[in-house]
Amino acid sequence: MPLNILIVDDSSTLRKIIRRCVTQTEIKFDNIYEAQDGEEALGLMGQNPIDIVLSDINMPKMNGIELLTAIKGDAKWKDTAVLMITTEARAETVLDAAQKGAVGYIKKPFTPSEIQDQLMPVLKGRAQ
């Protein structure tokens, strides 16, 4: 089964770091897509099947919470797993993301093992 991931962050450097962390895990993805904001992410999702989105919260144009809301509000994407990657440590921000359908969050800075620890339960749930 093909497995595709979308990394969304306004920093190209952080997208590269996240990509490297993802490729260092034991998880094998068929395609790793990148977007610089929520609007670009939705465009990519309209053109490509995406299984998991790793999204920053603070971005221009469309932030990660707005992207999460758009994904979960669209019938064709509502089952897409969304993990938030953020410097936000405020409990209300994390709770808001969880209530809107995020399956978890990863706090910056992070390690490849932290990304794998968050991704594995999501992938196991998809295999069932």
Descriptive labels:
128 residues, alpha/beta, Rossmann fold, 5-stranded parallel β-sheet, 45% helix, globular
Number of domains: 1
What portion of residues is helical?
40-55%
Catalogue the unreliable spans.
none
Radius of gyration: 13 Å
- CATH class identity: Alpha Beta
Q: What's the CATH topology label?
A: Rossmann fold
Strand portion, in percent?
A: 15-25%
First-to-last CA distance: 12 Å
> What order do the strands of the largest sheet run in, or round the barrel if closed?
2-1-3-4-5
Multimeric state: single chain
Derived structural class? alpha/beta
Reported CATH architecture: 3-Layer(aba) Sandwich
Q: Which outline best applies?
A: globular
Biggest sheet details: 5 strands, parallel
Number of helices: 5
Walk me through what this model shows.
With 128 residues, the chain is of the alpha/beta class. It has a single domain, classed as Rossmann fold (3-Layer(aba) Sandwich). Helices cover 45% and strands 20% of the residues. It is built from 5 helices and 5 strands. The protein has a 5-stranded parallel β-sheet with strand order 2-1-3-4-5, with helices on both faces. Helix 3 links the parallel strand 3 and strand 4 (81-86). Helix 1 (12-24) packs across helix 5 and helix 2 (38-47) packs parallel to helix 3 (64-72). The longest helix has 16 residues, at 112-127. It is globular, with a radius of gyration of 13 Å. The mean pLDDT is 89.
